[in-house]
Amino acid sequence: MTAEPDLLVLGRRLRHARRSQGLTLAGLAERTGRPPAYLSRLENGRVEPRLGVLGDLADALGTTTADLLTDAPPDRRAELELALLRIQDDPAYRELGLPALKPSARLGDDVLEHLAALGRAVCERAGRPADATESARRANSALRHQMRDRNNYFADIEAIAAEGLSLAGYPGSGPVSERVLTELVSSYGFRIQRVAGLPRTARSITDTRDRVIYIGDQDDVKVRQARSVVLQTLGHFALEHSDTADFGNYLRQRIESNYFSAAVLAPEGPAVDLLSEAKRQSDISVEDLKETFYISYEMAAHRFTNLATVHLGLPVHFLRTDAEGVISKAYENDGLPFPETADGGLEGERVPRQWGARQAWGAQGHFLLHEQYTVLDEGEYFCLTYIETENDRYPCAITLGTTAEHARHFRGSQTLRREHARSKDVEPDPRLVSEWEGVAWPSAAERSHVLSALPPSQRSFLPFPGIDLLDVYRFLDRQRRRRRPAG
To answer: How far apart are CA 48 and CA 242, in angstroms?
Structure first.
């Protein structure tokens, strides 16, 4: 079996070969018929080309496929640049809190040697993941940091989505019609077929020989969800992804294909126009984005994070949590301090009960959305939380927010709800813990992530993973008070 190519090395070898030929990206694009944005992604190690594409590139660059796939960097300079990039993705290095450092031409070889050696020492002292689960968490953490560094905006994917929409006849405003969607799928040589009995573990199955994308029938997948599934699947082919056994690459491909889907369903131009006008009116609403482009609230919130910082100058945060406040997805570039494990992982961690993501479940007197300000040690934040109930068995909370400084641009920012979640506010009541620790024995409820690692318990709560023992202690305290005789 042939080993998978190292995408960063492949990208450096492509760049080295291109520059040796005196070609710009635009020049190579003319020779190969591939968009400059796609070639840039190749050179930056963000996509793996198919063998046929690699052959075309080799011919255009006067080299061979075997030479491009050699697993050694083309020169010592490239080797040092790659080492510095990889070191900065290591969570142990991230814990230093240093800004990202690009290995630009201004850094001399001696400086790169020095930085690479220091970085390796930091990572080696921190140790390595003990098992596959920890490796996955570290890969997820590294990708999240990369997304934050680029403000969750992928210009190359936006360009590919916009080009596809233009060729498919999108008029430039409003939701993407079924006709445009079908034309877009056809432009990549595929057709869509709804079928019954799709395996529960697959959102779609693609027959690459007969060029058919199979998705669940109308009884299994609603229309709005089906549009997303089709485009998430098509995204893998539009972005020229390939099979991978590496979890980090799998996550990256998943993020990119989801981004492609959102960029098609809520196109950048009209979406930015809508949001810019809303900002001028101090009336930004994810709900408006959702209804205008006929997408789910979660996709609309994700899409807002793609565009908010680059186009509107707004720092943001996003959370997807369950009714217990357990995180399944998270993103921030506004400084909101998410609860993290020592290795930088978020998934499975529980947010404090004072945060909007948990307050929304019991809030009264509002329709769908819960707005509040939350005061933390690090500052004050505004957020809106939407309870998503399409999956009745496992509903979730979708939270979007920003710093209090920027809250005025959002609909609902006039709310008087304010919760305090500073360190002193979230510490458990010592009396409560002392009273009930060691005598409470809860049984964990079934949850959507029951087959994955349960949320790590904290401090002395280790016997009951996935249980919020403070809730248990409060419950027991209430029951005892009710049993006491009056007077």
So the answer is: 6
